[in-house]
Amino acid sequence: MEAALQLIHEYFIPFLVVLGAVVFVHEYGHYWAAKQCGVKVESFSIGFGPELVGWNDKHGTRWKICLLPLGGYVKMYGDADPASSPDEKALHQMTPTDRERAFFYKSVNKRALIVFAGPAANFLFSLLVLCVLFTVEGQPYTPPVVAKLVPGEASEQAGLQLEDKILSINGVGVERFEDIQRLIRLNRGEPVLLNVQRAGTTFSINMTPKVGEMKDRFGNTHLVGRIGIGSGKMDIKKMEPHQALGRAVHEIWYLCTGTLTALGQMIAGTRSAEELGGALRIAQMSGDMAKKADIPTFVWFIAVISVNLGFINLFPIPLLDGGHLVFYGIEKVRGKPLPLKIQEVAMRAGMLMVLGLMLFATWNDLVHLKVIDFITSMFS
Fold it and tell me: What is the pTM of this model?
């Protein structure tokens, strides 16, 4: 019992804080846009399943917290379910006044705006958080200069020297040594082109990062690219607001492109799909952050999760916001929406895809947390 309470305190509560914050931001984006477009919002839910606590506001919206804290939804007038599937029977029975408040009867542009507002809210929230952190707390900064060379590694073999300044990698500019690490880690065994400055002269070097293991701050082991260079002294660099804004945009862009690169490598088979994590991995990371990190770092972690939630929701998969946007794009071109039966079939396929990914990610989490090893050992 004591161990269970400790797990709840150390991992479950931080997980609720992290996921609750980013889900609220996402759903509030939908809610705010719906209200601006004159759509009646019937319920605003954090979590799924049975309601734990809730209240009605003066506009008739039911705000509630539900049992399963794995997401949330905004149910609008005319929706049959939290996935915004149209309630055909209710739609046909609506009066002209009712239709003015129904999501389904709004123009395609307004429906697209309402759907896009959820991911947009996640990006804006992260942008604001990162701007404040970089202005108030600063960001770790190390000059992109080679301070150490590991004998026999790709950098030495390619001719890099101490005090060389790396300007870009594969055409992507670098401002900090941390940028070099990020870009190289994504390129495992794949040739990269470095633009280097040495004694006032600029030239290019080709090299192929080797594959090595890296442990992150949570103790997770990852296979990453490495070229065998080390950095100098790290400093904390505070920024002016306009500099912080630019840096925050850069960080968000990197997170999104890095996610696409990693997914592409998984599909191509050059990166293991075992790295794909789910709710349990987020819970572990949330708990570790809460225990080992300071408040600014924990807030930074929330911003990172918010970017990921917003970005993944834009994937063109039915059931996700991106899937809805694809439907509205087709409707815009056709001049009329796809038949409801086709949308229904697509939604079911999207649900199966999302559930499949969730199950796969949960299996990876159980393996990563050695739960599967523990269960196997009980029967061997």
Answer: 0.84
